[in-house]
Amino acid sequence: MRGLIVLLSALALSACTSPERKPSVAFFYWKNRFALTAEEAAFLDSTNCRTLYIKFLDIARDEAGTVRPYTLLEVADTLGCGGRTLIPCVFLTNSVFVAIKPDEIEALARKTALALENVGQQFPQPSFSEVQLDCDWTERTREAFFLFSKKIKRYLPPSTRVSATLRLHQYKFPQRTGVPPVDRALLMLYNTGNIHDPNEVNSIFQPGAALRYVQGVPQRYPLPLDVALPAFAWTLVYREGYLWKIGPEHYTPPPYDGVQHIRTEVVDTTLLRKAAAVAALLPLASDARVAFFRLDSTTVRRYPAAFLKEMCQKAAQQGAVK
């Protein structure tokens, strides 16, 4: 009940605005092939989107245990890129940094920077002002991931900033997981539930669960803070009580003779509004980017552009710091 009162208070307070806070709309593009449709490009224009976070590559261990970049982005068309800041993103699995040696981290940083450069050559302006690292590091792996974060700067152009995503547990417990040695951080305000639980209501976002991570945290994070809000849906398929597949919203699994449970999770406008209210409690930077995950045809049709612009303002109105 107390969490609900806090959330309602945040919704009420977010009616206030501050001229010093200038949030901007951003989106994540998380496909392996970059080609915006005309509809998506027009949608970016209508939301006044200034920034696109684009997954350039994944880094993981292969079956032999070797760490390597893979699924490098293929750029088929650069429609919609003009006039926007493009931020290459590197997704790294946590297992990459388990039992990895310093010299291997050095080599990985060099390979990653080279892969970023190669993918970037497919865009009209191949130089980028920022690169984002996306890794769910833990107490066990933070030292290795932080060393990688430092090392990669050496192989990027001197003016390139490095940012990192934050999961909610990393934001809530910095004394355990540490603060990454980067220039900026982006808090992912979603995945609040247990995706592996067949009985979970909605693993993408639940206001009460999000509030438990946000409440009681100091009113200033050591790095300039942006936020990512959920604007997506998916279908989860469980077989014999275990997560078997994550599919798109309208995915239909093949027939199965055993125990199968299917759950489609959606973040509708009501739930997204609640997420923005929770974000309003965060100590966001005065120039915060409010990024929506993710951009695709479903996003364009589910969320009106005016609504997303409104959510951007609401998310940044209360928690911002200079």
Structural class: alpha/beta
* Biggest sheet features: 8 strands, parallel, barrel
Query: Can you name the CATH architecture of the largest domain?
Result: Alpha-Beta Barrel
Q: Globular, elongated, flat, extended or rod-shaped: what is the shape?
A: globular
Neighbour order of strands in the largest sheet: 1-3-6-7-8-9-10-14
Look at the structure and give the mean pLDDT: 93
User: Percent of residues in beta strands?
Assistant: 25-35%
Q: What is the CATH fold-level name of the largest domain?
A: TIM Barrel
The top level CATH class name of the largest domain:
Alpha Beta
Query: First CA to last CA: what distance?
Result: 32 Å
What is the total number of structural domains?
2
Note the total helix count. 10
**What ranges have pLDDT less than 50 throughout 5 or more consecutive residues?**
11-19
Q: Level of helix content?
A: 25-40%
Radius of gyration: 20 Å
Count of extended strands: 14
CATH H-tier superfamily of the largest domain: Glycosidases
Q: What's the SSE pattern? A: HEEHEEEEHEHEHHEHEEEEHEHH
